[in-house]
Design goal:
This protein is of the alpha/beta class. The protein folds into three domains: 5-51, Transferase, Pyrimidine Nucleoside Phosphorylase, Chain A, domain 3 (Up-down Bundle), CATH 1.20.970.10; 74-331 and 430-436, Nucleoside phosphorylase/phosphoribosyltransferase catalytic domain (Pyrimidine Nucleoside Phosphorylase, Chain A, domain 2); 337-420, Aldehyde Oxidoreductase, domain 3 (Alpha-Beta Complex). 45% of the residues lie in helices and 15% in strands. The protein has helices at 5-13, 20-32, 37-50, 54-65, 93-102, 121-125, 137-147, 160-171, 178-191, 212-228, 250-262, 275-291, 298-311, 313-324, 354-366, 406-415, and strands at residues 80-84, 107-111, 149-153, 196-203, 232-239, 247-248, 337-342, 347-352, 380-383, 390-391, 396-401, 417-420, 431-436. The strands form four sheets. Strands 1-4-5-13 form a four-stranded mixed beta sheet, sandwiched between helices. The chain has a four-stranded antiparallel beta sheet with strand order 6-9-11-7. Strands 10-8-12 form a three-stranded antiparallel beta sheet. The longest helix is centred in the middle third of the chain and has 17 residues, at 212-228. The chain is globular.
Length: 437
Amino acid sequence: MKFLATELIQKKRGGLELKDDEIAFMIHGYLDGSVPDYQMSAFLMTVFFNGMSDRETWTLTQLMMHSGRVLDFSHLGIAVDKHSTGGVGDKTSLILAPIAAAAGIPVPMIAGRGLGHTGGTIDKLETIPGFSCALSIERFQEQVAKHRLALIGQTDEICPADKKIYALRDVTATIESLPLICASIMSKKMAEGIQGLVLDVKWGSGAFMKTVDQAKELAERLCAIGSAGGKKVVAVVSDMNQPLGRFIGNSLEVEECLAILERKGLRGRALSEFSDCETLSLELAGAMIWLGGKASSAADGVSMAREILESGAALKKFQELIELQGGRLSELPQAVATQDVVSSAAGTIRSFDTAAIGSAALMLGAGRQKTTDVIDPTAGIEALVRIGDPVKVGTPLFKLYGKKNLSTVRDRLVLATHVDNSLPSASAGDLIAFKNY
């Protein structure tokens, strides 16, 4: 054995830079079982506290990328995907992917499950009865070639090292690490065979990056890795100081996406109440259309994306995707509200602890506290108020969907909602674009 895992953990713990072959030993060993979970957990924690150099991060990215198959869709034109760094109520993939595909952009999307307090695209889609995210690589390639869109979860064939480490990070409190985030995102995206990538890098109380400056740093590092890998990359920094849209939870978020695609209200709410989710989806879809060569600028891409959404073409493409992968939208389980959470104070909604709202949804059953947990597809939360709204004592703040931990969740949500008479601490919806070629 060339190295000892304990010595490499100790070296990184001491703040020293690891050599390429030392990082390779840890990654290959974790894949073949010679490095057990507890040693990889310790290694991830040392990276969490001490970081990685740009060289170490690039090495880790390449190792995870080449731990499985690397696809190539260049024969179809400019294939483009999108990735979000994670948020609460973040459901844009289900809207933007059909828009981009309807514009003629090949979209081979490999999505993830929930991570920490954030939701996952795969978990949302799997609430649709029959929908399969476990396509073979061959069928994935065929579907993208013929229909311009396929959406699958991570497989043992593509980035298996990241798949295994991703699950471990979720349960070892090592999520919010820039090098681990960068390597995880970019290894998957470069392995799926795209030429262009749109990044939604979130900041705020519900994001892993808490400040705009932290989000900018992550955006710049992701763009740099993409450029080193020969990809066209656009990063949008978006606000996550309150949930995106009105619904948090898997079937609820699918319903909300359908409402936007169908151009109608939902559960007594007007379409305009989902405008933040729609606006961000169009911004990201427009960037995808631009990178894919179908528009002369990002602004023209956004205009084209809106036309596709308004025409019903995006809805048709979404329905086609669901049908192709075995889903039955007509059988989507319907969530039933079980309790309202009301304000204990009067004043104005000043801010939210959005991560706490995401964790509350998890406690209701909308996510996993352990890797073995089974998600309740109908569990979730409806946000009834936004930053800047006036409230009185007894004003409904949230509606709960689910049966577990109701009293605990209610108390957490009240504490997560900050009410007083000062000005709001953040304005949602601000977008900052970074472009890198």
